[in-house]
Amino acid sequence: MTQAFDPRQTQRSTAWLASAGLRPTRQRIALAELLVGDGENRHVTAESLHAASRAAGEAVSLATVYNTLRAFCEAGLMNEVVVDGSKSYFDTRTDDHPHYYWEDSHSLTDAPAEELSIASLPKVPEGMTVSRVDVVIRLRKA
């Protein structure tokens, strides 16, 4: 049985999809409600979003979750943050900001951007432009 969402969450999620020109399919709306329905930002993995969708009663495959997250990233609704080259997190906050990666819990959180200073970047190869700089600060217990 599918969990009933608050109509405001559905409205917020549908508007989020529409802002990027994405068609509001049932599965996209269900995943968007879990991601932005309450207005809060999220850092999720495909696996954690899949588990949350199943807990909410949505019959969506892990492959669909991956494909939907990629579509959200391509539409500019989310950013993918890769940790260790093997683990991807998807962030609903799309402005430039650094992250903490908590090695003990394998979680990703926002780090205070106002405390980060990048003095310079290497020269960009000809014909290229910087699209984004990802800063991931890895943390473990001292």
TrEMBL record:
Binding partners and assembly: Homodimer.
InterPro entries: FUR, WH-like_DNA-bd_sf, WH_DNA-bd_sf
Main localisation: cytoplasm
Compartment(s) of residence: Cytoplasm
UniProt-listed CDD domains: Fur_like
Keyword annotations of the record: Cytoplasm, DNA-binding, Iron, Metal-binding, Repressor, Transcription, Transcription regulation, Zinc
Family assignment from sequence similarity: Belongs to the Fur family.
Name of the molecule in the record: Ferric uptake regulation protein
One Pfam assignment: FUR
Gene3D superfamilies xref list: Winged helix-like DNA-binding domain superfamily/Winged helix DNA-binding domain (1.10.10.10)
